[in-house]
Structure formats: C-alpha cells, structure tokens
Amino acid sequence: MSDEIVLALTAGEPAGIGPELCLQLAAAQRDAGVVVIASQPLLEARAQLLGINVKLHLWQPGMMPKKGAGELSVLHVEGCASFQAGKLDVANSHYVLETLKVAANGCLAGDFDGMVTAPVHKGIINEAGIEFSGHTEFLQELCGVERVVMMLATEELRVALVTTHLPLKDVSAAVTPERITQVTRILNADLKKFFGIERPRILVTGLNPHAGEGGHLGREEIDVIEPALEKLRAEGMQLIGPLPADTLFTPHWLDDADAALAMYHDQGLPVLKFQGFGRAVNITLGLPIVRTSVDHGTALDLAGTGKADSGSLYTAIRVGGQMARSLKSANRKAPNKETSE
C-alpha cells in the first residue's frame, strides 16, 4: 500500500468561487496530490479571466498528480454548459452532480484516498428538477449507507450534528433514541479511526433552552436524549450531557472535550463558524470514504473578482489528507482476515 495520498477535488458550482479556489492551488507546491474534478474549459476560462498562469495536465487513474507551482492535474468532466462567473445556469446542474459521482466512485474504486468538495448551489440544482439537499445526503445515498454525520471542525473545536438540513419545526420529532444512538456511534468510531483519539470525550447538548430545565421547558432531554446516552455509556463511551447549549461552548467544558454533539444545525454551527469561519472544514462521517469540504458557500458576488479566500479549502485538503493517512494506517494495523483464519 503506497504512502502517497491522492485527493479528488470537485470544483463545485461553475458560477461560484469554486473553480478559482481550485486554480489558486497552483500558486505553490503541495504536500498532498490533488486532482481537480471539473470541466477543463471551465478552469481555462476562469484562469484567463483572473490572469492566473497555470498549466493543466489531464489525469488518469494510476498517474501521480502534479504538485509543482503553476501546475494542476485535472480529471475532465463533460457537460458544463456555461462558464460565466457570478451567473447561475440551471443547465449546469447535472454536470455539477456528475463531478461528485466521479469523485466518490473514484474513492470507492481506490483511485483516490479521499474527496474534497468546493461549494455547490443547492437552489439551482433543485430548479433543474433534481431533489438535492446537500453534499452530505447525496453522498450518503451514493455510497449506500444508512446514516451519515455532519461534523465541522477547526483546530480548536469539533461540532457534529444529530439532525442537519431540516426546518426547525421538524427537529424535535427527528431527535429520536435511534437517531441519537446511530449518530453518536458513528462520531465515536470515526474520531478513533480518522483522528487517532483512543477514547473520545464527547459533550452532548440538550434540545431545549437550559436542557429542558428539569422538564419545565420540554421533556426531550428526560424522555429521549438521556436514556439514549445511558445505553451508549454502557458500551464504554465517554458522553457528558445533555448540557445546556448556551453554556456547553465555554472553556469550562470544551477544554477537556474532543467533540461536541449538537441536536440541530443552527444550535452548534453558528458557534463554530464565529470561532473559525474561513479556516474550518466540513467533514462527513459514516461514509466508507474520506470526504471534507469548505465551510462556506458559492459566493457568487466574489466569483471572478480574484478576492476569494482559499483558507478553508487549504484546511479541507490538509484535514482530508490527515484523515486518509489515518485510515491507511488503521488498515495496515488491522489483522488480515484471510491469514488469521
């Protein structure tokens, strides 16, 4: 098994900043091998618009990606209908999803050690008549797994979610013992597998203000969350909570924690993004592949201006590479079933 890491990088929405973030990678040497999954003419058009001097090399499985300054390896995907920065085109929607399929299938086939995604525009994909709620759910279906977990992370903080892209009115019904159990098991296992944490210490929020205040502000903590956590603690997990979300994200609790588990999207992610927006990474746990992403959207207003900040993309690539190396290391240490029987 080679120690070289090769990551697939999807360029995202053609009208957004994704293509130019990919092109910015060519400005310097890179530690990890990166293959941009995109329309080559799209990248050429954006490079010309921004005056970026880059040589694009067509890549095929088995080749080592170019790492030198001024060079990028590209796996060309057909179907990009228009290249105009800042102007969405519904005709590009199928192409965008095809880049994700190419990257994920390449990971499943072993051509890539992981995938990194630039932002897509959910609205324009749905306008094309395609049901799409986000990368996380799309990759869950493509990889055929029952449950995945969205986790955002900075150097100082990791926040995972029990529920993701749901209207707030639907969250309480979705916070079930089964869902909490599945999500927490995935989070605990992948903190071990991808981050080398032998026995993760996980903080868990309540759902209601003040974690329900003994049932006076809601009973989900008493009836749903705490019973699920007790069963998981019996499996040996270190779970602290349910804690009030307004005090969980303080040094008193976070200093000794490896991750926080929030019940819904806007309970945990505003804290993380305030703490580290632009240098955070979105990670999908529970997949059979490594997947990381930027922590921001398509930024149509910045597309084509040369002002897009690539900090989050570099973080996503660095973390994706670390996770891929950890997975390779874990696979090496795992006993060979055929030889051990």
UniProtKB/TrEMBL annotation:
Binding residues annotated for a divalent metal cation, in chain numbering: H165, H210, H265
Cofactor: Zn(2+); Mg(2+); Co(2+)
Principal location class: cytoplasm
Cofactor binding annotation: Binds 1 divalent metal cation per subunit. Can use ions such as Zn(2+), Mg(2+) or Co(2+).
Top EC class of this enzyme: oxidoreductase
Subcellular location(s) per record: Cytoplasm
Alphabetized InterPro entries for the sequence: PdxA, PdxA_fam
Keywords: Cobalt, Cytoplasm, Magnesium, Metal-binding, NAD, NADP, Oxidoreductase, Pyridoxine biosynthesis, Zinc
Residues the entry annotates as binding substrate: H135, T136, K273, N282, R291
Pfam families: PdxA (PF04166)
Signal sequence residues: none
Enzyme Commission number(s) of this protein: 1.1.1.262
Reaction catalysis annotation: 4-(phosphooxy)-L-threonine + NAD(+) = 3-amino-2-oxopropyl phosphate + CO2 + NADH
Other facts: The active site is located at the dimer interface.
Similarity section: Belongs to the PdxA family.
Assembly notes: Homodimer.
Function statement: Catalyzes the NAD(P)-dependent oxidation of 4-(phosphooxy)-L-threonine (HTP) into 2-amino-3-oxo-4-(phosphooxy)butyric acid which spontaneously decarboxylates to form 3-amino-2-oxopropyl phosphate (AHAP).
Protein name per UniProt: 4-hydroxythreonine-4-phosphate dehydrogenase
Species: Marinobacter xiaoshiensis
